[in-house]
Amino acid sequence: MRAKLSYALTAAVLVFYFVLVGSRGVMLIQTGTVLTVTFGVAVLILPVIGVWFLWKNTQFVRRANALAAELDAEGGLPVDELKRTPGGRIDRDSADEVFAKRRAETEAAPDDWRSWFRLAIAYHDARDTPRARKAMQRAIALHDGRPLEA
Length: 150
Prior knowledge:
Order of helices and strands: HHHHH
Oligomer: single chain
Largest sheet: none
Shape: elongated
Distance between the termini: 35 Å
Strand content: under 5%
Helix content: over 70%
Structural class: mainly alpha
Radius of gyration: 21 Å
């Protein structure tokens, strides 16, 4: 629940920022000189890119959460078998062991979205966020029946 609140708060702050920047861009365009109109259009591009990024990220999170709920209903969510340090952090060797199992599972069933989902969790536990995101995107694409990108 805390993660959802943090995400919502961050999204709200970003939307406020996009509105603020967008209004400044409109004000520059309304000035009417060639230079201010050019700057105004350039300033408006930033909120457009930001809104697009926020929308895509929100879609990704919603789809990943939907897969987690479906996998949980099936009883297929990975069990947390990771060893932890006294401070509560995941032990690196333990994460590597679990990752090796998940990778082998995914290699054995490359068209199964469930194995890709579990591999994404293993990447995340190993603190490899870019690969975790790509594995989750693959799980979402397989689940939705969309073609996979190379």
